[in-house]
Design a protein that fits this description.
The protein is built from eight helices and 19 strands. The chain is mainly β. The radius of gyration is 22 Å and the shape is elongated. The structure holds ligand MTE and molybdenum atom. Molybdenum atom binds next to loops.
């Protein structure tokens, strides 16, 4: 899978239509275009009811090194501070303080955590304020197992995972236990270079504190509410291709990308090649809502031209992506089909 960092160059036309949505995170949202926005008449070769070969899976994973840096780029600087890798000595000294509304405060080392019963599971990490999503098989210790090392005070109703700078957002304690939040030290087969990160299903990345130094169990007057993805990032969809050359008429072009709705099942991936006038809807039956949908769509252009493919997702509960993902590609008659 290619990174999404090189995304923009092909799509400079899209950026001007974004309005305020583009400000937060230019690199990623530039590949997503609002659907109902009036557009200038552009000279794209229009194909109504585009036909192609569709397939999907839920096992495609983000390469671990991209998971660690996915959101820590300039693109999402507004939302995530870049982390840093621990060296060997720092890893050996790494420990987490666990305290707050507990009968007994304690500290636990990374070594000790790695020797406990581990749980591995496929999970999505989705940014609330951009199109970024990572899908990984993560390994860690359930937060529940850490807390069971002591007793909680009766009034405990919230929990926060903080880094050394104090970054962390309180969550309802029940929620974290019910979602089986994990203190993750391994992503795929790779040691988490930043130490510990909290991951949990159905929850946006801002809760996934990296380089956890402290876990505090809290009593709050009002139990905090869990934030969802921003409305324009519901039913998130992204095209992962980065084309560097033209195609020839008759070439099969294999598009691919992901779709995710933060814990809600995706039911269809939809494609348009006439600027959203007609959509070809492909069903994704039986999807696991805790994993992204990784889709493939192959299309064979018959004539030369400049084309634009728009992709959007539909959820089982009837939501359609407010932002389609778009890619422009050239089919050049001078090229010979490969
Ligand atoms: N320590 C720490 N963890 C953090 C953040 C942060 O600023 N500091 N940002 C959160 C947000 S908003 C996102 S999108 C993800 C980014 O994760 P990554 O940079 O490791 O890919 O980290 C989350 N965890
Ligand atoms: Mo984020």
């Amino acid at each position: 899978m290619k990174t999404k960092k090189k995304a923009i160059s092909l799509l400079t036309g899209a950026a001007t239509l974004l309005g305020s949505a583009g400000v937060v995170d230019a690199q990623i949202t530039e590949t997503q275009t609002p659907q109902l926005e009036p557009r200038e008449e552009e000279s794209f070769t229009s194909v109504a009811n585009v036909k192609g070969q569709f397939a999907f899976d839920q096992d495609t994973m983000t390469p671990p090194d991209e998971v660690f840096s996915l959101f820590g780029t300039a693109a999402t600087a507004a939302c995530a501070k870049p982390g840093f890798a621990l060296d060997k000595a720092e890893r050996q000294e790494y420990y987490v303080n666990v305290g707050g509304r507990l009968k007994k405060n304690f500290a636990i080392s990374l070594d000790k955590l790695e020797s406990m019963n581990a749980k591995s599971t496929g999970m999505v990490c989705t940014c609330a304020t951009s199109g970024a999503v990572a899908m990984a098989n993560v390994t860690g210790v359930p937060v529940k197992d850490i807390l069971s090392m002591t007793k909680l005070e009766d009034d405990a109703n919230a929990i926060v995972f903080r880094d050394a700078q104090g970054y962390g957002i309180p969550m309802p304690l029940d929620y974290v236990l019910e979602k089986e939040a994990l203190l993750v030290y391994k992503v795929g087969d790779t040691e988490n270079v930043e130490g510990l990160q909290v991951w949990m299903p159905d929850t946006v990345a801002r809760y996934f504190t990296r380089q956890i130094m402290e876990i505090e169990v809290l009593h709050m007057d009002k139990t905090p509410e869990i934030m969802d993805v921003e409305p324009q990032h519901r039913a998130k969809v992204s095209i992962m291709n980065r084309f560097t050359k033209s195609f020839a008429p008759g070439d099969e072009i294999a598009f691919e990308g992901y779709a995710d709705d933060c814990g809600r099942a995706i039911s269809n991936i939809e494609f348009s090649m006439d600027n959203g006038l007609t959509w070809t809807s492909c069903e994704t039956p039986g999807t696991d809502a805790q994993k992204w949908v990784y889709w493939h769509f192959s299309y064979v252009p018959e004539v030369a031209g400049t084309y634009k493919l728009d992709v959007r997702a539909r959820t089982a509960d009837g939501n359609v992506s407010p932002l389609a993902s778009s890619i422009v590609f050239e089919v050049d008659a001078g090229m010979t089909s490969s």
